[in-house]
């Protein structure tokens, strides 16, 4: 089986390398890929630049946020480095870049996102961006403050404060703390932050869940959440379209199924 894993590793390396070189209008970070793999380089260059990036009505900034989020969720370190540099070259605010990475923590998990934080700091240091950046926190560590902020933001996503209260009331006694964590931490600590607007954060949540895979129920939940905050079918389809080269067709089609299911009319 060693030969099979060797082939998989080579194919994966080539795919990642080419995608790194051709994204979001950025300059190639893998200058030799056109020489070593000209056929696939040409296919991907054409697909990303002429097919994917020309579709939809997302802003340049949002396209960068989406692709950065995809690389965080898939743990593509080299790709993430290239994407951050490309975003900075296009004038994207370092605060916004950091907030995209931070927003991944409650969904992708700190074990995976920690390296992305460190890598982002490395790129910022190389570019002369002074750290730490200005704080974007809007709540303290006080539990009540976090619960209040979280109830407001979670309610906007799932249908109002009564919907949040219903979730807490329905929780089994040994799982009540998980509902508390979800409201206080995910929605209180993260969604309440400045640096990205609320609708952008909810769209990024969908992007992160779709990109990492294995979260179909949560994808459906956040398709509904995006509709609740005003991100319509067109916005979600545009976002998923930008993900195609980076996450592949199976995860893309799963996301489209969820969008279709909830926007059939």
From TrEMBL:
Domain of life: Bacteria
Domain Carboxymuconolactone decarboxylase-like per the UniProt entry, residue ranges: 38-114, 180-260
SUPFAM superfamilies: AhpD-like
Gene3D superfamilies in the cross-refs: AhpD-like (1.20.1290.10)
Pfam families named in the record: CMD
Molecular functions (GO terms): peroxiredoxin activity
Listed PANTHER family: 4-CARBOXYMUCONOLACTONE DECARBOXYLASE FAMILY PROTEIN (PTHR33570), CARBOXYMUCONOLACTONE DECARBOXYLASE-LIKE DOMAIN-CONTAINING PROTEIN (PTHR33570:SF2)
Name of the protein in its database record: Carboxymuconolactone decarboxylase family protein
Species of the source: Candidatus Enterousia intestinigallinarum
Lineage: Bacteria, Pseudomonadati, Pseudomonadota, Alphaproteobacteria, Candidatus Enterousia
